[in-house]
Specification:
6-stranded mixed beta sheet; 12 strands
Length: about 325
């Protein structure tokens, strides 16, 4: 496809459905009108073939994940998602690939009231997708990393470690059994949580994209507090338990594996059941915020574990790996 053929096709498929989208795809820029008394929340993620997803990932899965990881960032702030822009760099534009990409992106959006309002296309040697997501929330209601309080519970949504295990399964996916396929699906099609339901309940939140140890560490550093985490309490899916029978290996994946896009949050113990009801999904307590800074990992007996193996935990794009 030529660039402007793609833009025209997108304009037809992605007509705005929000009243506050004053102008969408087709002009030099979009025009948006956030509700009065609300703040605008903006995030951006770039996904590169061979770095963030395997080179042979289907187009629909790339479209789905590209949207989902950005919606997860908005969820971690407690924002209501509203708009997306999509920038695509590729060696060539093929209509079937672009149609499948948009199908996956729309599937990730689902029933959410979100408009894709613009973006860019360019030629490059490597496939890359850069999405900017915009959301809104009432003034002063954002969930921030610097708001954890001593005595807060630390909790996570869903299960951890599935995506990292799915990545290990990817090269043999043609022969994968049901459990391996389920883990691969968690890698290629993560489910963003509805973080806006936690406004007024959670104190601090972050999405688990680089691994629990690394991402929780950002909350602790920003809030100038510490935490004690029971690694035996980390929630595991039945597929992960059956596929990774070595408990130590499974624990490593859960503590340090990335790409789960679950939410890690802190909240007052008195608000735990209200938060569970608001999320209408699993929320597992894994530890507590403490005054002494740093992260302490324990097992179910309370024994402090040697964290030497986790000293480089978490993804860093510029650490040479």
């Amino acid at each position: 496809m030529r660039e402007f053929e793609l833009i025209g096709a997108l304009r037809e498929r992605l007509r705005p459905r929000r009243a506050d989208t004053r102008l969408g795809i087709g002009d030099d820029a979009a025009i948006l009108a956030p509700p009065p008394g609300h703040e605008l929340v903006v995030t951006a993620d770039t996904l590169i073939a061979g770095r963030h997803f395997p080179q042979d990932t289907p187009a629909a899965d790339i479209g789905f994940k590209s949207v989902a990881v950005n919606l997860s960032d908005l969820a971690a702030m407690g924002a209501d998602p509203a708009w997306l822009t999509v920038a695509l760099a590729a060696p060539v534009l093929r209509q079937a690939w672009c149609d499948a990409f948009i199908d996956g992106a729309r599937e990730a959006i689902g029933a959410r009231d979100i408009d894709i309002v613009g973006g860019d296309t360019t030629r490059s040697e490597t496939l890359a997708v850069a999405i900017t997501a915009l959301g809104t929330l009432p003034e002063g209601s954002a969930l921030r990393r610097d708001a954890a309080r001593v005595g807060d519970l630390v909790a996570v949504t869903g299960t951890l470690g599935d995506a990292a295990a799915g990545l290990a399964c990817w090269p043999r996916r043609a022969q994968a059994g049901a459990d391996a396929r389920a883990l691969i699906a968690r890698l290629t099609r993560p489910t963003p949580r509805d973080g806006m339901r936690l406004r007024g309940l959670a104190h601090a939140a972050i999405d688990v994209s680089d691994g629990l140890v690394a991402d929780l560490g950002h909350i602790l550093a920003a809030s100038n507090v510490g935490a004690r985490i029971d690694v035996d309490a980390l929630p595991a899916s039945p597929a992960l338990i059956r596929h990774i029978v070595d408990s130590r290996q499974r624990r490593q994946l859960q503590a340090t594996g990335g790409d789960d896009y679950e939410l890690c949050l802190t909240l007052d113990p008195a608000d735990l059941e209200r938060a569970r009801a608001a999320l209408n999904g699993p929320l597992t307590v894994i530890g507590r915020i403490e005054r002494a800074t740093g992260l302490r990992l324990t097992d179910a007996t309370g024994r402090v574990l040697d964290t030497q193996a986790l000293s480089r935990a978490g993804w860093d794009h510029f650490d040479g790996r």
